[in-house]
Write a structure and sequence with these properties.
Elements (H helix, E strand, L loop, with lengths): L2 E2 L2 H29 L3 H8 L3 H19 L1 E2 L5 H22 L8 H25 L15 H17 L14 H26 L10
Antiparallel strand pairs: 1-2
Helix pairs in contact: 1-3, 1-5, 3-4, 3-5, 4-5, 4-7
């Protein structure tokens, strides 16, 4: 697969990549400077949150779209759709369950929070709806959505077992039984699969036509 993407799709993707990437780098730097964390431990701390994983994925995939301009590798249509599912679920879960628990103390951190939890979960799905290489997904691509959240859960449980801190209450092994954790992780995985299935269904409605750019 070697589809060229349009110029406007590349420009829009670059905007998303730059904003998400800048927010990630700024968050990392602020935590080191303001909270006195060393760079290595800050990476482990920061990536305890799936928000960071999903925004990193969006930044990298959108950046690849902008720089390379072809629907291949990280910009394969299946990964484009999966990244939309990842960031969309982040936006839904955060804004329905977690927003009231988060209170960024400074304007800069509020801007970062906005980019992570509101801008990216809206901007990237809109990019996909309007500017993706349409009509390229198959039902077998539904499983492309699972590796990132499952690897994240393993990572978060491992880090949590070492630090005693779990980023989200639904994967808090210190308070939940392993049976409940399995149920919660399965439910989370099902949410991602459902989002991916919806994306595939929507994409398969499109007329298969060559991308021109």
């Amino acid at each position: 697969m070697n589809l060229w993407l349009t110029g406007r799709s590349r420009i829009a993707a670059v905007v998303v990549a730059v904003l998400c990437g800048t927010a990630l780098l700024t968050q990392y730097t602020l935590d080191i400077v303001e909270r006195g964390r060393d760079p290595a431990s800050e990476i482990r701390q920061l990536y305890g949150w799936f928000t960071i994983w999903s925004n990193t994925a969006v930044a990298l995939i959108a950046g690849h779209v902008g720089l390379i301009g072809r629907a291949r590798g990280p910009a394969h249509p299946a990964l484009l759709a999966a990244s939309v599912a990842w960031i969309l679920v982040v936006g839904i879960v955060y804004n329905t369950l977690l927003a009231g628990l988060n209170h960024p103390p400074t304007l800069l951190r509020q801007i970062i929070d906005f980019i992570f939890h509101r801008f990216a979960p809206v901007a990237w799905p809109l990019w996909w709806l309007a500017l993706r290489p349409a009509g390229r997904l198959e039902w077998r691509h539904v499983w492309a959505v699972l590796p990132l959240p499952l690897v994240y859960c393993l990572f978060a449980l491992l880090v949590g077992s070492q630090t005693g801190h779990y980023a989200y209450f639904f994967i808090d092994a210190g308070k939940l039984s392993w049976a409940q954790l399995a149920i919660n992780i399965t439910g989370l995985a099902s949410l991602f699969v459902a989002a991916m299935a919806l994306a595939i269904w929507w994409d398969r409605r499109a007329v298969r036509a060559p991308i021109q750019g």
